[in-house]
């Protein structure tokens, strides 16, 4: 699912922790993606990320426009279908099916949210898993679980890339994730426990079933907030010197309310900024997934 935290602005916290903005990570991922796209074009293949928008939500239309500009900058094609707010579930599935069967389309996303009468999750399940640039199709979750190649869920992959970019050791260290949601906590746990140099961590996942979760977060070398509960992570939940990744957010209108309280920067050794942390890496991963899908389709 492509969410709304797509701003690249970031604020400086008052504390002493090293800041970990997502924008340079995203730039590095996009530069690699542009190189991969150029290699494909030299073989006569234009990588393509298709988008579907349902309805007239201004913010959603804006996010599509950002992706189309990014696609153009990377040398991608970006075919787009705009369905009216009155579109039926069947019409949405037909639009997906047309992109699924088009060999020139390598990646496909449906902009979230869709109008309330439509079932977004049901639509996602009709996307060809090999074109699922959000990496959220159940088959891709299964591939992640067993370690098969396939599109990775964007926010978890973005967090792994952010840790790698800032050379934060993960292997052998204790990672605690607050939240086991399907888009973030659960796939991130699978990703960071994989046997790879940028993962290979001891991962613990805590949630509402673990009322004394601070007992776990206080011992984390790397704490990832993925709950969507504003201010849930307070300084007393953080081990001094730990790395804190704030991925969970809630929106109050257009105002972003992060899980991680600003004061955590006084305790952490390194921390993502309140705005412009994980979000920019998520968007970059869409394009990395799309170019990798194009490579796999043209091996
Ligand atoms: N930055 C980005 O680009 C990006 C991308 C995707 C998602 N997100 C954000 O990440 C957050 C999580 O997304 P999601 O889809 O995984 O959400 P979700 O499915 O709602 O999961 C939230 C998780 O947090 C846990 N939780 C909630 N309140 C808690 C509490 N008081 N104590 C302990 N655990 C608590 C829940 O526990 P239970 O399972 O026990 O209910 C659940 O596991 C959201 O804020 C979302 O906006 C950000």
From TrEMBL:
Domain of life where this protein originates: Bacteria
Domain Tetrahydrofolate dehydrogenase/cyclohydrolase catalytic: from-to ranges: 21-134
TM stretches of this protein: none
Record Gene3D superfamilies: Leucine Dehydrogenase, chain A, domain 1 (3.40.50.10860), NAD(P)-binding Rossmann-like Domain (3.40.50.720)
PANTHER family registered for this protein in UniProt: C-1-TETRAHYDROFOLATE SYNTHASE, CYTOPLASMIC (PTHR48099:SF5), C-1-TETRAHYDROFOLATE SYNTHASE, CYTOPLASMIC-RELATED (PTHR48099)
Subunit structure: Homodimer.
Protein's recorded name: Bifunctional protein FolD
Organism: Micromonospora noduli
